[in-house]
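Progress report, Aim 2. The chain analyzed during this reporting quarter is listed below.
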Amino acid sequence: QIASLQEARQLSQELFQKELDVLNEKLALVKELESLVESIRQNIQSLLLAPGGPESVFERISRAQTRIGELFSGLQTAGPEEQARIGKELQNLINELNQLRQEGFQAPSPESDALFRDIIGNLETLADMVEPIRSSEEIEASIEAIEKASQANLDSIDDNIKSLEENQKQLDQRRNELQE
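Predicted structure tokens for the chain:
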């Protein structure tokens, strides 16, 4: 019985470790892929909004505003994983819109001031929308929970082994007493 518990303990420990290893590998891969996708999207957006392209500054402002609206809509319906990515993209795009504002309008002017207020409003809205988002803390909490569950399971098995060993020791002592 002790040997089977020790074997169960070993198997349990191996399973928990494998689960943790898989989660850590997935986390690293997801972070790497998210970074790549983010870089590609930023590159595309920069090219579309860069001076020297086929569109005027006002067309680029319109394109940026349209994309900002699309991203805000997507942010409202996105899951936690997507919210972080969309939030970063929105922040970058809002900053680019501000650069386009400076390129297209003389400040101070009513158009520049109105666009500036919209930009600040967008940043405030973005901050309010992403504030409750959890990031990698969720995954780290899952890893910690698995580690705690694993340790609790191993401790329970160790306690059972110890109890059985003590029982075996008492039985051996009584057997020795009866034989004497």
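The helical segments are 2-49, 57-77, 80-104, 110-130, 136-179. The chain has five helices and no strands. These observations will guide the mutagenesis work planned for the next reporting period.
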